[in-house]
Amino acid sequence: MSVRHALLALLSEGPKYGLRLREEFEAGTGEVWPLNIGQVYTTLQRLERDGLIESDDDEQDSPQKRFRITAEGERELAAWLRTPPDMSSPPRDELVIKVLVALLVPGTDVREVIQAHRRYLVELMQQWTRIKDADAGRDLALGLAVDAELFRLDAVVRWLDAADGRIKRAALESPIAARDDLPRLKRKTGVTR
Amino acid sequence: MSMLELRKVSKVYGLGATQVHALHEVSLEVAPGTMVAVMGPSGSGKSTLLTIAGSLEEPTSGQVLVAGDDLATMSRNDKARLRRQSIGYVFQDFNLLPGLTAAENVALPLELDGVSARKAREAGLSALTDLGLADRASNYPDQLSGGERQRVAIARAVVGDRRLLLADEPSGALDSENGEAVMRMIHAACKRGVAAVVVTHDAQLASWADRVVFIRDGRIVDQTAPVPGPESLLRQDR
Fold first, then answer.
1. Cβ distance B88 to B152 under 8 Å?
2. Which of A125, A192, B77, B170 is the most buried (most CB within 10 A)?
3. What does the pLDDT look like over A83-105, one tens digit per residue?
């Protein structure tokens, strides 16, 4: 998320001084906001220039200045909240490539390759679950952020499980079948022989 | 001493050409106070592992020890007592008796074991209270939601002084929130010293365990390393 929208969100709760914004920004960093405190004041200036926020006094330095969100700023924030991020073309997935390449390498037990990745993912999930357990539902933002990680990693484990089953069936039905599908996938995954 | 130990346990169903090796020399140790998840696809042998660990089925070869006692050397009566007193089972489909209230379902294993009805009911109520179900004690299973039914099943599995909890896809039919609640309960039971084995294909459930072992075609092929502290993931420079 951009520093811009993080600041608009903090100001949507009510007017705040520059220093307070900086502190709240810092406190929220890690779970939700991106870490880039240096950008706080320059971004405030730009938001004011664009008419999305306004301040009491132009003379003072930023820490003593009180900012409030404008109606246009509220519209901008509301529109941003409802604009879906681009998820239509994900970056090339390194894990998918590794599994597909494993199919090509003679003498490689692809299912063992899959298991190495599955174990790593489950270990990561165990660590996130520990964090969720330790927090015991007190910090809502943390709980949501941890859930997002768990669901994301879980989806990858499910893909590995499905791949595992598909490869096992393909090997039982015809040892060649697993390779036949590869040329069509080359372009999408960037795998070349 | 391990609460549960499997030593090179194999299970073969059928004879000759139709033989199926459900388990092949599986070894596993579960210490008191720890949760082990057994993760694998359907048909991998994970449910067989659980029924053998719970003395509901006998291995073709190998040893099963519960609290240090070899099941093979125990009489049928001793094994029945072990199942009543020391082992709690949780299944995907809850297995509550429809004609009994939640409290009666939880108290049943104690009553079967000769505990007086009043004491059994007290212990049952206390187990339900621990799981936040005190106000549901006199409801019948069909008056409870799926999540509540599974919590009652867990209360029944840990009632009295049970030290070994065996769960087969304990939140299989539940949504993710209720599934998490179930895993939190099993986790809490482990913190009180119970040893638990949870069989599942679901990585999110398995991630509650202290150790995850991966089973494939009847063999344990891999397991996770001990879980590092949370500081390893939080507050990274990002």
1. no
2. B170
3. 988 877 667 789 999 999 999 99
For residue B235, count other CB atoms closer than 10 A to its CB. 11
Strand duo B195-200 + B35-39: pairing = parallel
Distances (CA, A) of A96 to A37, A86, A103, A156: 36, 20, 11, 10
* CA separation for the pair B199, B219 (Å, rounded): 14
CA distance B196 to chain A (A): 16
Specify the 3-state DSSP secondary structure of A2. Answer: coil
**pLDDT single digits (tens) B63-113:** 999 999 999 999 999 998 888 889 999 887 767 888 999 999 999 888 888
Contacts of B212 in chain A (CB under 8 A): 119, 122, 126
State the CB neighbour count (10 A cutoff) for residue B217. 16
Token pair in block for residue A102: 């494993």
CB contact (8 A) between residue A121 and residue B238: no
Can you list the domains of chain B with their CATH numbers? 30-58+82-227 (3.40.50.300)
